[in-house]
Structures are given as C-alpha cells and as structure tokens.
C-alpha cells in the first residue's frame, strides 16, 4: 500500500500501488508526496516467480483519453491506516463450465504456490441452490496438484476448500448482492478488504451483475475489481454500448477484460524473444519477413456450446480477440517500458494502423458430418444446440494488413477452425528468400522450400523452432532443412502454469498488462465489424469441410493470392 499525503489538507489516502493510475501520477507531481509501503502478507518471492515479470513501478501513462478522464475510482478510499488486508474473490456464475474447469482450479494452484495473501476468502455466486459443502464437493472434483508437486496435496486442498463459500442469488438483485456483502464482511473480520469479482456468466447479464456488485457489494475500504470474460460485444456498436454501461459503475482501471491467450506461456514469451535477443528484432519487418501466420485449430466441434457459438461464430470467438491480440504483440513497436500502459499504447497504435478486413480477403467454412474408422462425427448443424439452417462459420481464414512503415505489404494470415484434423495454436514467421542464393540449384525450382521459418508453438507441446538450411554430412553437397528446436518439455520439465493462474494473479496484483483496454477493444472491433456485417447481411454461405479434415480448400487459394503457403500444412512441421 502507498500513503498519499495531501499537503493542502490533513487527509491521508491509501492507494494500492496497483491502483496508481494517471490521476495519481498527476497528483504526485503537482502537490503530493508518495511513500510506498510493502504489502503485508504476500510472499513476494513466490509472486515474482509465477508472475510474468514486469518489475517496474506502474507509472506509465495511458494515451487513451477515457482512462485519464475518470475520477479516481472507488479503488482509492479515505480511511485510517490498517495493516491487515483480506482478499475476497467472488466467482459469479460459480455453477458454470468455466468456473469449474478453469477458475477454481487456477485459484487453488495459486494458493498451492503461496501466491494468495494470507487472508483470503473465495465465494461462489449463482442462482443454483447449493450449500457451502456442496460447492466444496463440486470444486474438489476438478482440483489437481501439479505433477511435480504432489506432496501435501490433500492437506492443501482441504485448507483451500475451507476458505470457499457459496451464496445463491439472482444476477440482477441488489438485495441478493447486499446479502453477499454481509457474508463477505463476516469473513473479512474487519480487515481492509480487497474484492475481486470474476464474471463467469453469459454476457447479457454482465451489466446487471456489475450494477448490483458495485452498488451493494463493493469494498468500502480497499479496491474492487471486476474480471470480465469475453465476448465483449458482437461488433463495434454493441461493444461500445457494453463499455459505456460498465463505465457507469466502474472506472476503466477496475475493469479487467480477460483474453486467456495473453496468459499463455508462449504468448508471454513473444516479447521476450523479440526484445531480449539481438538476432530477431533487426529482422522484424517487411525487409525480411514475407508473411506471418496465426493458426488456431481444434479437433473437436462445438459439442454442447452451440447455443453460445452460433450467435458468435469463429471470427468473433477466436480471431477478433485471441489471434488479433497475439498479432498486436507480434507487430507492435518497442514499448517505452514493460508497464501495462506503455505496452497497451503500442498495441493500440498497431491495431489502429490495420486495414479493415474485406470480404475478398476472407474464406469462411463450416464442418459437416463425417464417418471415419466406424465412428460418426456430427456436422455443426446436426448439433442439437444449433439451428439446422445455420450458416455460422466454424472456420475462417483471413489476410490482414498493417499500413505502417514496418509492415507495409506484409500479409498477416489468420486461420481458425473447429473440428479440424488437429489441435494446435501457433505463430509462423516466414522469411524472404535469400537474394542471389549461391545454393539455388541445390533447392531445385521451389525456392519456398529454402526459406527460413520461425515457429512459436503455443500449444500443445510448447516449442520455439527455427527452420534453417544445412549441409548433409558427407562428401557431396546435399542440403537439408532442419529445426533449431527449443522444446519446452525437454528444457523445462516443470509443469507450465495455466493461463488463468497468471491472469488471476495479475488481476489480484493490479497488473493490467495482459488485460484489454477499452480503446484496444474499439480498434479490434473496427477491423472486423464491416466484414461481419457484410457476411451476415449478404448471408454468405460457408464452404463445407468434413469433420476432422484440414478445412476448406479456399484457405489455400487465399494464401496463394498473397504468395504464401500455410506453414502448418507443409508436412514437415
Ligand atoms: N466455457 C469456456 O470454456 C469458456 C467460456 N468463456 C466465457 O465465460 C463465461 C462463462 O462461460 P461458461 O461457464 O461456459 O457459461 P455457462 O453457460 O456454464 O454459464 C455460467 C453460469 O451462468 C448461469 N447462466 C447460464 N445461462 C444463463 C442465462 N441465460 N441467464 C442467467 N444465468 C445464466 C448459470 O448459473 P446458474 O443457473 O446457477 O445461475 C451457469 O452455471 C461466458 O461469458 C463465456 O463466453 C470464455 C472462454 C472459454
Ligand atoms: O475462448 C475460447 O477458447 C477456447 C480454446 O481455448 P484453449 O485455451 O483451450 O485453446 C475455445 O474452445 C472456445 O471456443 C473459445 O470461446
């Protein structure tokens, strides 16, 4: 905690370092002095180990007007100095799929690693009637210990479960949130309270929950933050509307828009690779890079999530957020520092330099039923949760362009699909041909075979590899193509934390670097919205592809149009 002393009055205001926003910066430079105190109860060493390192104080300034205009949010409250704090995490939608699969297990992993403060309480909130015991029983089924850390696992689980409680309520009921507030206060036992709400619910009830939580269950003494799950709207208008509605109750600095791909280890490593190795950054431009590819594929269909998916489709589900966020990190200029605002400022700039996506640069597909090895896989429209005349794309490929000096003319190809032949997510950087290549004749006519390619495999089997050309040992001169390979499982046998662990920890610490700012979101939607409207108003029929295949052939023509080939289909991985 930091104590901000205001010389013009005798007021003492407590500010957590994490809520140290632009307003705080201004007030320090003009009239205040700032003294930091270490946060009590945190195991700093452990935090540092797990957390994506930043290390520098949160003093960058957002270039985004909205963040600066807000009054200093509810995070900053006048109160007598207190040393003991309590963290309360309320998972709203606790009975749901994401809560069970990801959020509770991630909270347990943080507890196991010693990354949660000494005093913490976890609440589940949903309409389903459940007792505390029933919630614990439900959570305990999904908790696991890391493979490399099984000792005391049972004891740790029991200890964790004792801190978990449940409150059943309606999402739009202020009264029910006031009841939650009473329970939270009981558990906080008069300590300074920091409250984190995780909205793991369908998006149409986000605003109701934020209204009730902020009016009736926000902290009166510490900070209140809200993690919002995607989707953040369906297009520019609905996203803008959602942001405006959320901002009636929360300041931008209290909103943590999660994109779990930003918490993935290899995505975190992208900036390290670029900015801490001399060899890559000089090549990172149109001068050396011929195309960049962002590929996401899943080997299963919508299976039960059709109700949500059919209203969004693959472009909104994966491209506009996960792949575009990775693209922005890949293509941004060097930020001034690793501070959240510096990084997000650079991401916004690159997103705003991008051309709006055009229909002729997009291919959409939808999987159809397929039988293989005596097993039948249902097509998308045969899923009982999907209307049988649906034309929602389950696959899309797109060519995007960044109109700035660094990337002029370089195609950024994206491909995302469900029910394909494999599950993978990767970034592929294809370099240009070597000019006047002395070994041209050894490669034959296909010079593409000789180009270098850098691959960051986000999942599964995290790896970074660089394809190079080398001589095959022997008396002759025969060339080969090999991989310089950093395979994480070989180099780092330790289990990699789940993306949700990193993101939850960051939200608790007030680190916003991996969360999406509202102006980033606006810029992202403006690239995709015209295309989405055109696809929908013209009812463009998707190209059908068999379940378990490599997707529509149209994707190959799209890449060929820009003189590229999909690296994942080259067969040499
Ligand atoms: N599941 C996943 O893998 C991912 C999910 N997300 C996002 O996370 C959020 C939660 O996802 P998920 O857990 O799958 O969602 P669920 O459909 O499981 O919903 C979560 C909870 O919300 C309540 N709920 C569901 N539908 C309604 C409704 N129509 N009106 C009011 N309450 C409802 C239910 O609780 P109760 O009835 O007890 O109140 C349910 O248990 C969503 O925004 C989703 O888009 C993002 C990435 C991945
Ligand atoms: O956000 C989403 O992501 C999942 C894929 O996440 P991963 O971490 O398992 O790769 C995807 O299945 C889902 O459709 C989408 O909403």
TrEMBL record:
Pathway: Carbohydrate degradation; pentose phosphate pathway; D-ribulose 5-phosphate from D-glucose 6-phosphate (oxidative stage): step 1/3. Coiled coil: none annotated. Its EC number is 1.1.1.49. InterPro entries: G6P_DH (IPR001282), G6P_DH_AS (IPR019796), G6P_DH_C (IPR022675), G6P_DH_NAD-bd (IPR022674), NAD(P)-bd_dom_sf (IPR036291). Residues 272-566 form the Glucose-6-phosphate dehydrogenase C-terminal domain. One of its GO terms (cellular component) is chloroplast stroma. It catalyses: D-glucose 6-phosphate + NADP(+) = 6-phospho-D-glucono-1,5-lactone + NADPH + H(+). The keyword Repeat does not apply. Keywords: Carbohydrate metabolism, Glucose metabolism, NADP, Oxidoreductase. One of its GO terms (biological process) is pentose-phosphate shunt, oxidative branch. It holds the Pfam family G6PD_N. Residues 91-269 form the Glucose-6-phosphate dehydrogenase NAD-binding domain. One of its GO terms (molecular function) is glucose-6-phosphate dehydrogenase activity. Belongs to the glucose-6-phosphate dehydrogenase family. Catalyzes the rate-limiting step of the oxidative pentose-phosphate pathway, which represents a route for the dissimilation of carbohydrates besides glycolysis. The main function of this enzyme is to provide reducing power (NADPH) and pentose phosphates for fatty acid and nucleic acid synthesis which are involved in membrane synthesis and cell division. NCBIfam families: zwf (TIGR00871). PANTHER family: GLUCOSE-6-PHOSPHATE 1-DEHYDROGENASE 1, CHLOROPLASTIC, GLUCOSE-6-PHOSPHATE 1-DEHYDROGENASE G6PD. This is Glucose-6-phosphate 1-dehydrogenase. It comes from Artemisia annua.
């Amino acid at each position: 905690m930091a104590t901000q002393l205001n010389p013009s009055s005798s007021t003492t205001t407590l500010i957590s370092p994490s809520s140290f926003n632009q307003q705080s910066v201004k007030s320090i430079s003009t009239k205040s002095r700032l003294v930091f105190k270490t946060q009590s109860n945190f195991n700093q060493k452990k935090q540092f180990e797990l957390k994506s390192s930043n290390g520098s104080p949160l003093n960058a300034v957002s270039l985004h007007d909205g963040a600066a205009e807000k009054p200093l949010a509810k995070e900053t409250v006048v109160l007598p100095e207190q040393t003991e704090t309590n963290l309360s995490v309320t998972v709203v939608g606790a009975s749901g799929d994401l809560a069970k699969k990801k959020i509770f297990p991630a909270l347990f992993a943080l507890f196991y690693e010693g990354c949660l403060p000494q005093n913490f309480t976890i609440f589940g909130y949903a309409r389903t009637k459940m007792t505390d015991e029933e919630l614990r029983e439900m959570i305990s089924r999904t908790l696991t210990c890391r493979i490399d850390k099984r000792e005391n696992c049972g004891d740790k689980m029991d200890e964790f479960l004792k801190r978990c409680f449940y409150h059943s309520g309606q999402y739009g009921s202020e009264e029910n949130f006031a009841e939650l507030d009473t329970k939270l206060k009981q558990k906080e036992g008069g300590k300074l309270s920091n409250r984190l709400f995780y909205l793991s619910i369908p998006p149409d009830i986000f605003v109701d929950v934020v209204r009730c939580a902020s009016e009736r269950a926000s902290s009166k003494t510490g900070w209140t933050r809200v993690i919002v799950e995607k989707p953040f709207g369906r297009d520019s208008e609905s996203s803008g509307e959602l942001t405006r509605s959320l901002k009636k109750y929360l300041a931008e600095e209290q909103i943590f828009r999660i994109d779990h791909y930003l918490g993935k280890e290899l995505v975190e490593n992208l900036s390290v690779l670029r900015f801490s190795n001399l060899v890559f950054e000089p090549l990172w431009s149109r001068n050396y890079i011929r195309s960049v590819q962002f590929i996401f594929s899943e080997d299963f269909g919508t299976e039960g999530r059709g109700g949500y998916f059919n209203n969004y489709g693959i472009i909104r589900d994966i491209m506009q957020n996960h792949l575009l966020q990775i693209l922005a990190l890949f293509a941004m200029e060097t930020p001034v520092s690793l501070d959240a605002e510096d990084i997000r400022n650079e991401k916004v700039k690159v997103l705003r330099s991008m051309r709006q996506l055009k229909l002729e640069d997009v291919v959409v597909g939808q999987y159809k039923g397929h039988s293989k090895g005596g097993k039948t896989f249902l097509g998308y429209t045969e899923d009982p949760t999907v209307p049988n005349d649906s034309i929602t794309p389950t696959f899309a490929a797109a060519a995007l362009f960044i109109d700035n000096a660094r990337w002029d003319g370089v195609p950024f190809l994206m491909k995302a699909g469900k029910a394909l032949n494999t599950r993978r997510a990767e970034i592929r950087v294809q370099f240009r041909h070597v000019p006047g290549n002395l070994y041209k004749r050894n490669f034959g006519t296909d010079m593409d075979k000789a180009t270098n390619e850098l691959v960051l495999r986000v999942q599964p089997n995290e790896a970074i590899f660089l394809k190079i050309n080398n001589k095959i040992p022997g008396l002759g001169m025969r060339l080969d193509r090999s991989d310089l390979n950093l395979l994480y499982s070989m180099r780092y046998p330790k289990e990699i934390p789940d993306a949700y662990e990193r993101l939850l920890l960051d939200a608790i610490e007030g680190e916003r670097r991996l969360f999406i700012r509202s102006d980033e979101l606006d810029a992202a939607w403006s690239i995709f919205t015209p295309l989405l409207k055109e696809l929908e108003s013209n009812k463009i029929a998707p190209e059908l592809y068999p379940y378990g295949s490599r997707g529509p052939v149209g994707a190959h023509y799209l890449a060929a149009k820009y003189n590229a080939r999909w690296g994942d289909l080259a067969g040499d991985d």
